[in-house]
Amino acid sequence: MVKENTVDILGPPQSSAPVTTTVIDIRGETAVPDHIVWSLFNTIFLNWCCLGFVAFAYSVKSRDRKMVGDVIGAQTYASTAKCLNVCALVLGLLLTITFIILFVTGSLMIPQMVRQHGGY
What we know:
Elements: H1 36-44, H2 51-68, H3 71-105, H4 110-116
Helix pairs in contact: 1-2, 1-3, 2-3
């Protein structure tokens, strides 16, 4: 005995009500990076001329503006913090590398100066 499988084709719905759709526009929160971790790093490690600390202050202001909902203000403070972080990083690296080169080549004669003046 062979069983046959059949599929019934359904027609259009029997209801004559019009189909309506609702579109809800949910505006997503704009992601504004506040660079607070980078600023904190520059404040702790590469704080030449206090640029890292100033960048940290601008990062906190950017985060505050973002919490209030002022996206334009948050972007402005974040842009300033990023610029200060780049300056602090470049200046800190250049000065650190310069100090290491001067120390290794003997241009900084700290041990000789200590011996000549009888210690400190």
